[in-house]
From TrEMBL:
<dbReference type="InterPro" id="IPR008306">
    <property type="entry name" value="UCP018008"/>
</dbReference>
<dbReference type="InterPro" id="IPR007362">
    <property type="entry name" value="DUF429"/>
</dbReference>
<protein>
    <submittedName>
        <fullName>DUF429 domain-containing protein</fullName>
    </submittedName>
</protein>
<dbReference type="Pfam" id="PF04250">
    <property type="entry name" value="DUF429"/>
</dbReference>
């Protein structure tokens, strides 16, 4: 399904941001990029990431799912490169992740704990989701800006009433939006790449806090889970 969506919208160029390990060569232990991003101070803070190995992924899921998604996309559109180097490339797949994106873009509000966790009260998690969606309204002043967050997350006022299944759908929607916006941001700015194309990399946007509020560029709107602009669709 992901590959079909990419094929439909990416003919003129796209950066596809995927929240999953896309290159997993290590049989055991952790990937270098996982350790590198956790060692780095980003806006003075540290990230925690899911570390993985090929044996772990195969034992738990039967496949390395991110690798399978990349294969499916490239089978339909061989022009896509899996790389952290966005220079002079129109069709790129990158690995990114929402927690890193939120730290990179909203350091003053980090951590944002909207994910369902067994040891955290569900009501607290839903409050954090509301805070997350409110933070996204700042994007109207970002470069590139997004001006219709309230339309896209139009059920934000009823978050506290959501049962867990519907909340998980909203959680996935927010994750997808963050990855899409990160990809669009990276088309306009240089991000930070941890690791390499050979053994795995993670790319996240990191704002210059002195220049974040610039809403003078092209208007961008959210539609059907993708960010649509005049030249690039993610």
């Amino acid at each position: 399904m992901i590959a079909a969506i990419v094929e439909e919208h990416a003919w003129e160029g796209a950066i596809v941001g995927i929240d999953a390990p896309l290159i997993v060569n290590n049989e055991t232990g952790a990937r270098y990029c996982d350790g590198a991003i956790m060692r780095e101070k980003i806006h003075g803070k540290n990230l925690s990431v899911f570390t993985c190995s090929k044996s772990f992924m195969l034992n738990h899921f039967g496949v390395v799912r991110g690798e399978e998604v990349v294969k499916a996309i490239r089978k339909r559109m061989p022009a896509f490169s899996l790389t952290g180097d966005l220079t002079n490339k129109k069709h790129v797949i990158i690995e990114t992740f929402p927690t890193g994106i939120t730290l990179g873009l909203f350091p003053d509000a980090f951590p944002i704990k909207y994910k369902i966790k067994h040891k955290v009260k569900f009501e607290t998690t839903k409050t954090e989701m509301g805070r997350s969606i409110n933070l996204l309204k700042r994007l109207s002043d970002f470069n590139p800006p997004v001006h219709n967050i309230e339309d896209f997350f139009n059920h934000s006022s009823s978050i506290q009433a959501l049962p867990k299944k519907r909340y998980k759908n909203l959680e996935d929607k927010l994750d997808a939006f963050l990855c899409a916006y990160a990809a669009y941001w990276l088309a306009n700015h240089k991000g930070k790449v941890f690791g390499d194309d050979q053994d795995g990399f993670i790319t996240i946007p990191i704002i210059d806090e002195n220049g974040v509020r610039d809403g003078r560029s092209e208007r961008v709107k959210v539609k059907c889970g993708r960010l649509l602009g005049p030249e690039l669709r993610t």
